[in-house]
Amino acid sequence: MKKISMLLLGLTVASSAFAMKVGYVNSQELFSNYTQTKIIQNNLNKQKSRLENEIKEKEVNLQKLQVELQAKGAQATEAQKKAFQNKVDEFQKLVRDSQTKLNREEMSRLQEIDRIMNGAIQNVAKKGGYEYVFEQGAMKFGGDNLTPKVLQVMEQTKKLK
């Protein structure tokens, strides 16, 4: 009798050792519901609008210069044509540089959110004793939804600029 109870106890311990705690998160939901995402998107939109206004203003000035140059027709000197072309080149460089700067800023901010999200996932997984955390779409059955807990941890992190 004693051997049977020891065997049952051994099987119970062995079966619990094989049980894994698995969770999942919805990264899209985390990203879109994180308050800092909205703040960052608003800041980027303001920067974009500011740059667009600056570019439109310079474009209008360029168009005026072009009209003046065309009005001179054959009387326009090579120096004037070259000066106009330089302004066109500067304008095109401004457009390219502005877009590159905006793209870099956006990428940097998104990477920071991703870093915060991954840190929060690891934090929740450790505290909850989860061995694996998958993206929600990768889970067909089972697991615990950790998305609300992770979002809560993300919100408690240091606010981004």
- Would you list the SSEs in sequence order as H and E? HEHHHEEH
Hey, roughly how much beta strand do the residues contain? 5-15%
Distance between the termini: 68 Å
User: What CATH first level would be assigned?
Assistant: Alpha Beta
The DSSP helix count reads 5
CATH topology: Protein Binding, DinI Protein, Chain A
Output the strand order for the largest sheet. 2-1-3
CATH superfamily: Skp domain
Coiled coil: 41-94
GO molecular function, one term: unfolded protein binding
Protein name: Periplasmic chaperone for outer membrane proteins Skp
InterPro entries: Chaperone_Skp (IPR005632), Skp_dom_sf (IPR024930)
Index terms:
161 residues, Protein Binding, DinI Protein, Chain A, 5 helices, rod-shaped
Can you walk through the features of this model?
There is one protein chain. With 161 residues, this protein is mainly alpha-helical. It contains five helices and three strands; from the N terminus they run H-E-H-H-H-E-E-H. Helices cover 76% and strands 6% of the residues. Strands 2-1-3 form a three-stranded parallel β-sheet. Helix 2 (27-33) runs parallel beside helix 5. The radius of gyration is 30 Å and the shape is rod-shaped. The N and C termini lie far apart (68 Å). Residues 5-16 have low confidence and may be disordered. Residues 1-19 form the signal peptide. Belongs to the Skp family. Residues 41-94 form a coiled coil.
